[in-house]
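**User:** Hello, beginner here. Are you able to go through the protein record under this note? It all follows right here:
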Amino acid sequence: MVRSKVIGDCVRTMQYSKESIIELYYEWLFMAEAQCSQQIRQIHLPEE
Protein backbone atom coordinates (compact mmCIF):
# COMPACT_ATOMS: atom_id res chain seq x y z
CA MET A 1 0.00 0.00 0.00
CA VAL A 2 1.21 3.47 -0.83
CA ARG A 3 0.00 4.90 2.48
CA SER A 4 2.18 2.65 4.64
CA LYS A 5 5.24 3.60 2.58
CA VAL A 6 4.43 7.27 3.13
CA ILE A 7 4.21 6.68 6.88
CA GLY A 8 7.54 4.83 6.80
CA ASP A 9 9.21 7.71 4.95
CA CYS A 10 7.79 10.22 7.42
CA VAL A 11 9.06 8.24 10.39
CA ARG A 12 12.52 7.86 8.87
CA THR A 13 12.95 11.53 8.00
CA MET A 14 10.96 12.80 11.04
CA GLN A 15 9.50 15.55 8.86
CA TYR A 16 6.14 15.16 10.55
CA SER A 17 5.10 15.48 14.16
CA LYS A 18 4.05 12.35 16.03
CA GLU A 19 0.43 13.54 15.96
CA SER A 20 0.20 13.73 12.17
CA ILE A 21 1.77 10.26 11.82
CA ILE A 22 -0.84 8.86 14.22
CA GLU A 23 -3.54 10.71 12.27
CA LEU A 24 -2.33 9.18 8.99
CA TYR A 25 -2.19 5.76 10.61
CA TYR A 26 -5.77 5.92 11.89
CA GLU A 27 -6.96 7.22 8.53
CA TRP A 28 -5.28 4.23 6.86
CA LEU A 29 -6.80 1.85 9.45
CA PHE A 30 -10.25 3.33 8.86
CA MET A 31 -9.93 2.92 5.08
CA ALA A 32 -8.74 -0.67 5.45
CA GLU A 33 -11.55 -1.49 7.86
CA ALA A 34 -14.14 0.04 5.55
CA GLN A 35 -12.87 -2.00 2.60
CA CYS A 36 -12.85 -5.22 4.64
CA SER A 37 -16.36 -4.79 6.03
CA GLN A 38 -17.63 -3.98 2.54
CA GLN A 39 -16.09 -7.19 1.19
CA ILE A 40 -17.50 -9.20 4.11
CA ARG A 41 -20.99 -7.80 3.47
CA GLN A 42 -20.72 -8.76 -0.21
CA ILE A 43 -19.73 -12.29 0.78
CA HIS A 44 -22.31 -12.88 3.51
CA LEU A 45 -25.37 -11.02 2.31
CA PRO A 46 -27.36 -12.77 -0.41
CA GLU A 47 -28.09 -10.75 -3.53
CA GLU A 48 -31.51 -9.16 -3.38
Observations:
- The radius of gyration is 15 Å.
- The mean pLDDT is 72.
- The first helix runs from residue 2 to 13.
- Residues 27 and 47 are 30 Å apart (CA to CA).
